[in-house]
Amino acid sequence: MANLLSFERTNINLVDDGLLCAFYDLKAELAYFCSIPTVRPRRDRHADTLAVLDRWFAFEPKRRLETITDLAIGRNGAVKAPLLGSSLLLASEWARCAEFFSADDFQSTEALRAAYRRAAKACHPDGGGSHEEMIALNDTFALLYEAVSSEWVQRELQAADRRGRERDMGPFGIDLSVIKPTKAKPFRAAALLDEAIAKLWLEILVDEWNLDAAVRMVGGFARFPLLLTPRASPLPMERWGLLSIVQKLVERCHALNRPDLCADIVPRLAAEIANSEMDYYNGRLKETLSGVKRAPVLNHPRQRSNAERLSSRPLPAVRTRSGKTALTEAANAPVTASTEIVSFTALPFDPPPGARPPDPSRIPFPRAYGPPSESYTPAQSWEYHQAFYGSGGRDLIDKHKWARAWSIMLTLVTSDVPPAPVLVQLKRLGDMFPDHMAHLAQIGEFLQRMEPGQLRERLSLLRKLDAAVRRGSFPGWDPIRYANGTECLVVGVGSGYVDVVRADPERLKLAIRTGSLLTAEENRRRSGAWTRMHRFLDDQRRKGADAFEEMNRGDDEAVVRIKSAYIDACLALAPEVMEVAGGFQICWSYDRMTAALVRLGCWTEARARLRQLFALPECFFERCSPSDRQTLRKRLDRLERQLDP
């Protein structure tokens, strides 16, 4: 009876603080992860697996071993079959759990559902129960069914074995061959199982090129119960299969030109290799430490992002003796061949230690404005980097280059140093990504021509540009204009283009004061034009239901009639809404109409309509893609050649 109460009390604690849920999540996730046979799908699964591992290893080692011993290791030290549940696990959640669910009910999902139906008859309000008991029953059944339904995991493992994976798989999907000699010691078997899971965690971190987290894990391996290892063993790394993993970790640190990350573990690794007689590892270590670097092979987006994060050279601003800010010497250091493909794409500076992580909606833009303070650290944190995974918009590589570019621009704006070295790095970034970074170089040149004392104007301009580019990821068609001095910077919200144009002095003064080249009256007129435009389009949609059916029947004459009426109505309204004429999307209507005219043989009328289109002002083509415009131009050229040979 005492043993029963002890077992019950242990599992009540597990339920209270979430350790039980972490155990079952870990078992299900690792069993599924290890059943994936190919490399690419396993890498795609790394993010979910790392989240489960982080949650599991957040608990104390002693409590982890107690949990594994109770739930996965038998009394004789042998690893159990997948645990299907126990009525005592949820006793603290619902006192009547043991009354309705017995050990026989956990053998299959069918038996568990039958027990649930029997319990529901007694707990339902119509059967004499209460709403509270029915809610507790449903919650209990959901947890138990999740544990019992782990049978599919075993089917996946058996299928993997049939595909040729000859490994002794346990309930976690981990190779348990190291646990076989320790069947008589349950606690030791639990320690070995926990260390096998930790080894898998380290393998995933190294494969992800998340090297700083992997180094911290190797340095903190004392958290794991390695004290149970025989003290006479001179090679703990080799004994636990860590030698090859740590060797790969050191190689990758050197490949990214970051030997400082592994400086603490290299002597330990060299000593263990020297004690062993492994010429292969010894030769590879000497080759790595001698400066011979292998080019990194980055096949996955998260691998590339982690490599960029670690290999980038940050640009911290430091104080000189004269009191002015200057760039560090590391910023102007030459780029080595091994890091050329991933340099100059660092993230912005991390928040101070202990501060809240940045809002993901603000990424990839700087978290705050102003020069980096002394509390900022150049080391890139995993929490800051992780925020990139959940943000939409550009892909991961684009986020890195945008973040790096804005960090450079922030340094240029908020520092009194000569902008030449910053612009050099911005130019290198533009050379690496010429399609997207050219307009940022124009921003740099524009800011460089500003007076050094105009710090407030510089920050105001950068804030406005930040907001304009952030709004560029959403539908929008109006250019936003900002000015300074005798020049004006135009930011297109829809396309993201940036250009420097000339404007009259009065407009520039207005832009410096209000942030826009348009007066209040012009803004009101533009807003009224959009209102009339939307009313017109709503009327066209209400009238177009029957016309849509006619067009879908393939009647070319109906297409010509309907589209001609729409185009004529748009051109009649155009003088009132010329500022927003792109909202008509008139190019698509011309395309449908002229194609139908060509099929009907009305070539002269089709040519006349196309000539009418290309005679319209440029504002009508704002929402017409270049490819559609080129298609219409080619159609007009063919008609010209056929009618006037």
Our estimate of the beta-strand percent is under 5%
Number of E-state strands: 5
Number of domains as seen in the coordinates: 4
Most strands sheet = 3 strands, antiparallel
Unreliable runs, pLDDT <50, ≥5 residues?
1-16, 75-92, 159-184, 221-240, 274-297, 313-397, 472-479, 492-501
Which strand order spans the largest sheet, edge to edge or round the barrel? 3-4-5
Shape: extended
Distance separating the two termini:
105 Å
Q: Which class best fits the helix and strand makeup?
A: mainly alpha
Q: Which oligomeric form is depicted?
A: single chain
Helix content: 55-70%
| Helical stretch tally | 27
Q: Taking Cα atoms only, what radius of gyration do you get, to the nearest Å?
A: 34 Å
Integer average pLDDT: 61
List the helices and strands and how they pair.
Layout: H1 2-17, H2 19-34, H3 39-44, H4 46-57, H5 61-71, H6 97-100, H7 109-123, H8 131-148, H9 151-162, H10 186-207, H11 211-219, H12 236-239, H13 243-255, H14 266-275, H15 279-289, H16 301-311, E1 317-319, E2 325-327, H17 382-386, H18 396-414, H19 420-432, H20 434-448, H21 455-471, E3 479-484, E4 487-492, E5 498-501, H22 505-514, H23 520-552, H24 556-573, H25 586-600, H26 603-614, H27 626-643
Antiparallel strand pairs: 1-2, 3-4, 4-5
Helix pairs in contact: 2-4, 2-9, 4-10, 5-10, 7-8, 11-13, 13-15, 18-19, 18-20, 18-21, 19-20, 23-24, 24-25, 25-26, 26-27
Region (Disordered): 296-332
Protein name: J domain-containing protein
Keywords: Plasmid
